Amino acid sequence: xxxxxxxxxxxxxxxxxxxxxxxxxxxxxxxxxxxxxxxxxxxxxxxxxxxxxxxxxxxxxxxxxxxxxxxxxxxxxxxxxxxxxxxxxxxxxxxxxxxxxxxxxxxxxxxxxxxx
Amino acid sequence: xxxxxxxxxxxxxxxxxxxxxxxxxxxxxxxxxxxxxxxxxxxxxxxxxxxxxxxxxxxxxxxxxxxxxxxxxxxxxxxxxxxxxxxxxxxxxxxxxxxxxxxxxxxxxx
Lengths: 116, 110
Prior knowledge:
The structure holds 2 protein chains of 2 kinds.
Chain A: E1 5-7, E2 10-13, E3 19-24, E4 31-37, E5 44-50, E6 53-56, E7 65-68, E8 75-79, E9 88-95, E10 106-107, E11 111-115
Parallel strand pairs in A: 2-11
Antiparallel strand pairs in A: 1-3, 3-8, 4-5, 4-9, 5-6, 7-8, 9-10, 9-11
Chain B: E1 4-6, E2 11-14, E3 19-25, E4 32-38, E5 45-50, E6 55-57, E7 60-65, E8 70-75, E9 84-91, E10 99-100, E11 104-109
Parallel strand pairs in B: 2-11
Antiparallel strand pairs in B: 1-3, 3-8, 4-5, 4-9, 6-7, 7-8, 9-10, 9-11
């Protein structure tokens, strides 16, 4: 079974530039998450989709971050304009709808963003 | 108060030691609980789910206390390969609010 695919793996941009990350979840997984992980910290949830609807985007800095999952499958996360503090690993994860143990989330390898 | 809190770490232990990690969560409606492991510069991967009755997988034992909103992970006979960051994860019904703790780093020393 193919895992969660993310691209690019690495990105270096200057502050005030824009950047986009792509994620393709595991086939059949209705729920998709984007996390930001700053070095030395746990992943912080930015946005959660269920199919193509947003379940939770309370921690997404909406003045500069946007995300979409138009067809309920793959998703893009965009930052515009980027700030130095956006340097982090951006992780995409997916899981099935369900209860309890069925909701294990699977992660992609992440995109490491460096803003200079 | 943060939704999920963990021992700050790091934990440095010799090979063969037993080490315990603690985690507390604030949302009493949380339904599912997991321990994830994250190696340096890698993505998190599921170590084990945590069930109300407690569960064991080889050298690893997880416990859940719903009344105290507390989760633990015990590693017995630790190996060098156990060196990683251990992340406590809590989520609500139907996969909502999949929230990570800050993680506890473990270094097992020869």
